[in-house]
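Researcher: Good morning. I'm working through a list of sequences from a screen, and I'd like to move beyond sequence-only analysis. For each chain I'm collecting a predicted structure so we can compare shapes side by side. This is the next one on the list. No need for commentary yet; just the structure.
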Amino acid sequence: MPKQLYTWDKVTAGDIISFRYKGKKPTSTLTTLLVLNPKMPYTLKDKTKTLHLIGLKLEDKGVVPLIKNKPLLVSLLEQVGDIEVVDGKNEIFKVRVLGTGPRGATQRVYDKVKQKLNKHAVYRTYDYKEARKSGVFLEPIKLPKPLVELLIEN
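Model: Good morning. Structure tokens for this chain:
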């Protein structure tokens, strides 16, 4: 299941992407993320304004899923929106987030999935400028086989 090359300008709410992020660590790690807000404005304590990439972290280091229970992962994705097929052959999916505003997911989406977010600690924010230093890819994710077959049929 190969990744598909993507560009940061095309990233929207609902995309499942992977990118390398260094942050404050000495080396960067590969992160797979379900994007909720691609460019959320944020004001730091020193009053400087930055943009943040906000999403739900699905995998770490490209292969280690944070939610190992596939039905639970599907439940979380379905609470965010409708799962759609981007590339059925390579198992690349997107979530059409219901109720998005001009900057991405609205507060109603966060409220809807808040309980699962707290339980599994998958909510993450990233400095957008730092994330853009790396290439971005549409990432395939593992979903239950019957669901994948049903999504590809439709």
